[in-house]
User: What shape does this take?
Amino acid sequence: MLHRWFAVCVLCAACTGDTTPAREKTAAYFGLKDAFTLVYDVEQTGGTPTTASHIYRKNESFADELAFSREQRNAANFIEETVILAARDEDLRLMRVGDCLESCTDFAAPPVLMNNPVDPNTSVTSVTATTTRSFTGGMTTTTAGKEQHSVIVGAEKDVNTAAGTFRALEVAWTVSYPDEPARASVVRTFFFAPNKGIVQFSQGGKTYKLNNGITP
Assistant: This one.
């Protein structure tokens, strides 16, 4: 009788328990999906309004990682930026910048971009050695460097977009170069809605607001 009771309990646990792997939960939390596109309206002071898109695909470049490439394309379908992100059990990591056609940068220790879950009014800083490969005329040039990634999460607020109003966290991501004091830091600001994705971001003097791809 005891053995039968134990078997029933195990069966019930298997039927009702959540068996989704932790890193797949992280991917869903950060809005990472295969063959998935978000479209943004692009605003620029003194410029003509246009559109851009983020295209996500599963990426097999890194063994044992649940990784996704994210291509940023402009209205003419030209690739402006490619990054590879990895969903781990407890956080989101930046694995690579670039598509390795002209150049790409890899990290000795992939920096943490955000923890899962993201808590308001927190920060995380990662310093890592980098290897940048440039491909020109059949030749490969390799350059070593160092980057510091500082991510500051602010308060949660309502963000109004053409796709609707999202409850999102404001995030500031700064990349600096400890060994190159004359090199300017790169600062990006974005609004992240948990279990949805990035609903607004700013970079290079432009503001990108979600037009379609997800709903509140």
